[in-house]
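My current task is to audit a protein record that another person submitted. My question to you is simply how this chain folds and whether the tokens agree. This is what I was given:
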Amino acid sequence: MITVIGLGFVGLTTGLGFAKKGFKTYGIDINAERLGKLKNYEIPFHEPHLKEVLGETLGKSFFIDASLNEAIKNSEVVFLCVGTPASEDGSADISHLLTAIDQILSVDSDSYKVLVVKSTVPPSTLLQRVKPYVEKIIHGTNKQIGFASNPEFLREGYCWIDFIEPDRIVIGVNDEKSKAVLSTIYKPFGAPIHFVSYNSAEFIKYLSNTLLSTLISYSNEMSMIADKIGDIDIPNTFKILHEDKRWSGNPASMSSYVYPGCGYGGYCLPKDTEAMNAIARANGVDTAVLSGNLKINADIKDYLVDKLENELKKNDAIGILGLSFKPDSDDVRITPAKEIIEKLLRKGFTNISAYDPISNEVFRKEYPEMAIKYFDDLDSLIKHNNNVVILTGWKEFKENEQKIKKRNVYDFRYIYIS
């Protein structure tokens, strides 16, 4: 049996994935509103396929009504899928992770359990912080605890497909008993399983995310250079770059990262790049690329806002198209749109409105202080704004190119090819 602690994007997908494969799986979350929605077969965020799987498994192989005590006692594997946000200095805050561990270890159970850290944490976290922390607590007791690091490689908007049909499974483990348990639960997925050290597993996750964030910042730096040189068709040059056969792939292939825009956002890339940079500095490494990566991700927003300030008047009507950090997602955490709108407001722009196909209410709720107007459809925004700024590359915006281009368009996602 399996317990998943934390039912956000990663945790809920993980829990439903194992339940779909036939494992009895408990889902635990401290957010009562989230649990209430799940009990009513509602997914508390936008993610394709999860609603159907929840309907198939809830109360059959996926259980969210059990107490933490019951779940832990009955489980051999406990997945930790809680948030690890960035601290003020950029390092990963693992306090939620340690709190969850405290709650798990408070359960009176001596049966063998594998604690699996699926939350994204910098290399050395499990070995140097989590494992010693647990061993200190259980010293002198009969508790039997194994450890593993099992990073996720889930793309928002594709979470279910990525979990149920993984290209690879990475497990950091150093004891045979834990390895055998995890081999059993992952065998039904039919993907290559890579057993590595704890640090290697954590490092592989950061290799992935920091590469993706670096590719985005590289593209934005090149777009700024091209804009300054002039007479360069920026979106078309990148499209031609992508014709190299090494970039071909599915809709979320590497080419979607090597493309200029207004910066990377979401929950993973910003905090993971900062965390990797922080731990590198702590180990005496001068991170020219990562530091530059983070600087460019900040600079691109100032660059684009300055462009608007130089070309528009402060009372001009500006319509923002897109609030989520990427299309096919309602995630507005660390979204570039938030920073760009804030910067415009601070510079004195007074007539800003926005439309996103699914993220209006999420954005309004997350940033209630934002003094902007929201439109419920594309036509209304276009009607009321002479200037349109595209900040998310939604399919709806691509399909309505001619309609949108009747206005003065700032295509900061380069979704239109000349």
Q: What stands out?
A: The longest helix spans residues 198-229.
